[in-house]
User: Fold this.
Amino acid sequence: MSERKVLNKYYPPDFDPSKIPKLKLPKDRQYVVRLMAPFNMRCKTCGEYIYKGKKFNARKETVQNEVYLGLPIFRFYIKCTRCLAEITFKTDPENTDYTMEHGATRNFQAEKLLEEEEKRVQKEREDEELNNPMKVLENRTKDSKLEMEVLENLQELKDLNQRQAHVDFEAMLRQHRLSEEERQKQEQEEDERETAALVEEARKRRLLEDSDSEEDAAAPAPPPPTLRPKPTAILDEAPKAKRKVESWERSVGTLGSRPQLSGLVMVKKTDLNCSTPRDQPASTLGTVKNGKAAVPALRTPGTSSLSQLGAYSDSEDSSSSN
Assistant:
């Protein structure tokens, strides 16, 4: 299988190129080519901006009766991207550029206008010098004066460069570095002094707080609170027999010496081994004689039975409490 993109074609031995018929094509024939806009332009019909580098499918033709140094000039037809109006421009081999013909205006061509203006001024000057010898002398004088000014400016620049050549930039950088280090050192010292001052102030404050706490500790302690007496202490001080009698009399009243109530009072037999209570009155208990406890004598009927009841009840309370 032969290569698809080979450059060498096979020519048979009997090939005669003169026998190939020639096509008669018109000289103004147009070709469809793919190109990009060579400059920024604006459509005259709709005002659409077409920027440089925009791609178009253009028609290309050769301009008739226009040649520059044997080079043909080509014309291109494109359409506006918005209104489809036709825009044409052609090549300019003299200025290695393109020239706008119709359908749009070229934008941002200040540099080209400046070059054209310089060329026009140069041409007018040449025409004046050709017909006026005095004008030639004036122009030469202006040129010499301008040249002297340029030389003076150039000499000043050279002198300035020589003066700057003796400057030691390394020393300047070194000095700047040293000054920067000194500034950093001063800032560090200031920071250390401020830190030390803050630490000293905190230490003094702590010492003052400690001294205040010591003074508070050295102050005399307040007297301890007095113990409140028990509410029942007064009961132990007074004779129980009398308290019983008074409480009974306060609640019930005095019974007197009626025989129906005196029969209710029972005489309690005291134990011989039981010790005599401290709080009990001696009148209610029998006397101890020769190691034997005497039985308490009964009271006469004339005495109050309520007092005897209180006495016996006091002896029971004292024995239970012991």
